[in-house]
Amino acid sequence: MKYISTFILLFILAMTANAQSNYTKGYIITNENDTINGLIDFRTDKINCSFCKFKLSKNAEEKIYYPQDLIAYRLIKEGKYYVSRTIIIDNEQQKVFLEYLVQGIKDLFYYPQKNDCYYIEDENGKMIAITKEPDKIVDNKYITDNKYKGILSYIFRSSKSVSKKINKAYF
User: Fold this and answer.
1) How far apart are the C-alpha atoms of 29 and 15, rounded to whole Å?
2) What is the rounded distance in angstroms from the CA atom of residue 101 to the CA atom of residue 9?
3) pLDDT higher for 49 or 164?
4) Which residues pair with 86 in a beta bridge?
5) Rounded to whole angstroms, how far apart are CA atoms 51 and 66?
6) In this structure, is the dihedral angle defined by the CA atoms of residues 23, 26, 28 and 34, taken in order, positive or negative?
7) Burial of 59 (0-12, 13-18, 19+ CB in 10 A)
8) Which has fewest Cβ within 10 Å: 9, 33, 121, 130?
9) Which pLDDT does position 19 carry in this prediction?
């Protein structure tokens, strides 16, 4: 009986821990291009890229938005900005929230998968995945995946100053 009550207590604690929220100031941008200020539940990268929990004020009703519902959302204090984009996951097109990391010659985004995955958006709006397999030892040789350097060289082929630095770039 002691084990059952301990199990029930642990189960209840686990459920309440998962139910906690971490609301912080932010805003959403709707598909109609309206910006609405409020509070956003700041969670892990994986959760933030899946959906956005939003409410207008502390005591307001919570609403969950998915990538097809919003253009973007921002967590102000944390400096995190997520945009809705379509990418290929397991050979299927899926609309997700990508964390917008850098706006520059090419825009850089992040999406958490089994291995970190970065995306660069080309001039046509196509999302190009940049990944790196973990290093491994095969037949007593240290093997490192450098395919990302070739992809980056292709993407930045028109920028000589960037192209020169790619071979020295770390993932």
Assistant:
1) 31
2) 41
3) 49
4) 95
5) 5
6) positive
7) exposed
8) 33
9) 55
Show the tokens assigned to 119.
């995306």
Q: Per the confidence metrics, is the pTM higher than 0.90?
A: no
User: What tokens appear for 64 in the block?
Assistant: 């969950």
Q: Round to whole Å and give the CA distance between 96 and 37.
A: 21
What is the number of residues in the chain? 171
Q: Tell me whether residue 104 is exposed, middle or buried, using C-beta atoms within 10 angstroms of its C-beta: 0 to 12, 13 to 18, 19 or more.
A: exposed
Residue 102 vs residues 91, 99, 107, 145: alpha-carbon distances, Å: 26, 9, 6, 24
Residue type, 47: I
Kindly write down the DSSP assignment for every residue of 33-88, as one continuous string. --EEEEEEE---HHHHTT-EEEESSTTSPPEEE-TTTEEEEEETTTTEEEEEEEEE
* Residue 24, token pair as written in the block: 């912080």
Separation CA 55–CA 127 (nearest Å): 30
CA distances from 36 to 48, 54, 60, 67, 143 (A): 18, 10, 14, 16, 49
